[in-house]
Structures are given as structure tokens and as C-alpha cells.
Design goal:
Blueprint: H1 5-23, E1 32-33, H2 36-42, E2 46-49, E3 52-65, E4 71-77, E5 90-94, E6 98-100, E7 104-106, E8 109-118, E9 121-128, E10 134-140, E11 150-154, E12 162-166, E13 168-174
């Protein structure tokens, strides 16, 4: 062991540095809830769905955004009088790769959602907005711990990585 107090102090500091780095709080996800103004800037007033442009209800918009300007957002479609009535209920904008459930991986693009009630919860169907081609499904389930009912909400990953439809939740992950 070195005899110099200064050398000893430097050695102790070097040995303790990795512990200090481990004690630093880890940065939370850069994703946060999008503001109404941010949602209005990315979501269309009339969503292009197959051959139609369906009006959206912007006051129902929900979404998350990151520090790089990517947004994942959804809004209610006003489908009465359109061919989409009963098939689609929400427009989903994905600007960063997104996984829903265990098997559905979405690339950036525009999608529409519709769902049917099943014994397990809600079977949510995801379609490409432009073509109506089904991309896949995922199941939203009632959680073990009751939560406040939300018409439709995309929760930021720091809070919960779920999409909420009414009282049903479906996990998502950002890829």
C-alpha cells in the first residue's frame, strides 16, 4: 500500500468510482405523454382510411412522444355513414416501431383498430389504414387490479407500458 496520503486518496477514489456510477439514478424512458397541441399537430382531422377520409374526434386523442420527435398516437374515428362503421373505431399513428402483445410488430405507419368482445377480453384487430389489410390481432384483458376506465389511452412506458381500452389493458413495447 502506498505511503503517500495523496496517492492513497487517489487510489480510493479510483476504486470507489464504479460504485458511484452504479448509484446514479438510471435515466427513465425518454417517452412521455404527448400534449394536446402535439397530438393535434400529428393526427389528421380526417384520417385516410382505405378510399375514404373519415373525420376524427381530436378531443379524444391520446399518445406518447419521445425526445426525438417520434409519436405514437390514436384518435376516435367518427365512422357513422362510412363503410368503416362497425369495422374500425380508432386511427393509430405509429412513428417508431411498436410491438403489441406477443406477436404483432408494427412498423412506422398509419393503422386503424377495431375490436370484438371475447371470453378472454377484447380481441383487437389492427389494419393498415390505406389498404384495410389486416396486420394482426392482440388481446386486451381486464387487469387483476381495477383501474379507472379510460375510453382509449396510450400510457407512457415510465407509468405503464399498456394501451387501455375501457377497462381492458394490452401491453406494448417500443422496439
Amino acid at each position: 500500500m502506498p505511503n503517500s496520503p495523496r496517492l492513497r486518496a487517489i487510489l480510493i477514489a479510483v476504486l470507489l468510482m464504479p460504485l458511484a456510477l452504479l448509484a446514479q439514478p438510471r435515466p427513465k424512458s425518454s417517452w412521455r405523454a404527448a400534449t394536446p397541441a402535439e397530438l393535434e399537430s400529428v393526427l389528421p382531422a380526417r384520417a385516410p382510411v382505405e378510399k375514404e377520409r373519415i373525420e376524427t374526434e381530436l378531443r379524444t386523442a391520446t399518445g406518447i412522444t419521445d425526445a426525438h420527435g417520434h409519436t405514437i398516437a390514436a384518435v376516435v374515428l367518427i365512422t357513422a355513414g362510412y363503410a368503416a362503421n362497425g369495422k374500425y373505431s380508432h386511427f393509430l399513428l405509429v412513428q417508431s416501431p411498436l410491438a403489441l402483445g406477443p406477436d404483432l410488430h408494427l412498423v412506422p405507419g398509419s393503422y386503424v383498430l377495431g375490436w370484438t368482445r371475447t371470453e378472454d377480453g377484447l380481441l383487437v384487430h389492427v389494419f393498415e389504414a390505406a389498404t384495410g389489410t389486416e396486420r394482426g390481432t392482440f388481446v386486451a384483458r381486464i387487469p387483476k387490479t381495477p383501474t379507472k376506465v379510460e375510453p382509449f389511452k396510450i400510457w407512457p412506458p415510465a407509468d405503464r407500458s399498456v394501451i387501455q381500452i375501457g377497462r381492458f389493458l394490452a401491453p406494448y413495447s417500443l422496439e
